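Q: My labmate handed me this sequence with no annotations at all. I'd like to see what the chain might look like in three dimensions before we decide whether it's worth expressing. Could you predict it?
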Amino acid sequence: QVQLVESGGGLVQPGGSLKLSCTVSGSAFSIYPMAWYRQAPGKQRELVAEISRGGITNYRDSVKGRFAISRDNAKKTVYLQMNSLSPEDTAVYYCYLDNPVRYWGQGTQVTVSS
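A: Here is what I predict for the chain of 114 residues:
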């Protein structure tokens, strides 16, 4: 049974930082790309960042230079370091694995507010 468990969300002030983690169990990890998506209230889910099995990264334009995705294959964990957060980053953040069955984590809430 494949499970993706996220952690690290919370409430942060504008300009602050958070680091999300997603640990995978029940699946091979190192050979598959991983991604983070987010969904704000009333909006569609959108890709935030992705990382290939070789560590090549891709980001949506609005987070470039502020967010960084990384992976630790030994720990079967993918991370999302988020800096200079703004209220527009408020959303539920989801971890995503395509192995090639598509799996989603349960989501972790990130709220940016003063």
